[in-house]
Specification:
Blueprint: E1 7-12, E2 15-20, H1 26-30, E3 35-36, E4 42-49, H2 52-58, H3 72-83, E5 93-101, E6 106-111, E7 120-123, E8 128-131, H4 134-141, H5 149-157, E9 170-172, E10 177-182, E11 187-191
Antiparallel strand pairs: 1-2, 3-4, 4-5, 5-6, 6-10, 7-8, 7-9, 10-11
Length: about 200
């Protein structure tokens, strides 16, 4: 029921990324997602990038075509090609992203500074499933659901911790954080921004 403006998917071996489109600006109508780079990286980006001009200027070697026709997803993929995981700290906007890095065999998940977009994941011994919405993730994971009492307590007291969801085993990426998950299942969370900086 999502993606009234179409979408697509890319499969690379055991990795598959699906994107459902909902166009909100001129650039989003030009996008084809998920987008694959020449080196095989695959990106799905929900949201928008606000410092487009600055990034386009800094990434002129990686980006081709008319400035007005360069899409946000192309900018982010070029930023990843140039700066790797550090690219997230250079993005300003309203976004959540999922990126497969075939060179390092990692998935990168990240949310913007404010956390306006959601991004959830479920990791088991044999697979990682991510989604910008919790409901389809619950269905696709097929895991038995148990209530996360810590989330409920936080919800009743004031506000649950941002990485919690109502269900055990299902997690949210925190705002201004990125998580890289390697093929062997090891994960590394990184806070890429703070108000003090």
């Amino acid at each position: 029921d999502r993606g009234p403006d179409g979408g697509g998917f890319v499969i690379d071996g055991a990795v598959g990324i699906c994107y459902r489109a909902f166009h909100t600006n001129r650039e989003s109508r030009l996008e084809k997602q998920p987008l694959a780079s020449r080196n095989g990286a695959i990106l799905a980006l929900g949201g928008r990038i606000d410092n487009r001009d600055e990034l386009i200027s800094n990434l002129s070697d990686e980006l081709r075509g008319e400035r007005a026709n360069i899409t946000d997803v192309e900018i982010v993929l070029a930023a990843f090609s140039r700066w790797g995981e550090d690219c997230v700290s250079r993005l300003i906007g309203d976004f959540a992203l999922i990126l497969w890095d075939p060179i390092h065999q990692k998935v990168l998940l990240a949310r913007d500074h404010i956390g306006a977009r959601t991004l959830y994941y479920h990791q088991s011994k044999h697979r990682l499933i991510c989604s910008s919405e919790l409901d389809p993730l619950l269905v696709l994971a097929g895991a038995s659901l148990s209530v996360n009492e810590e989330y409920i307590a936080g919800f009743l007291a004031y506000d649950p911790e941002p990485e919690l969801t109502p269900f055990n085993g299902f997690h949210a990426v925190k705002p201004f954080h990125s998580i890289s998950i390697s093929r062997d299942g090891k994960s590394r969370e990184r806070r890429y921004w703070s108000l003090a900086e």
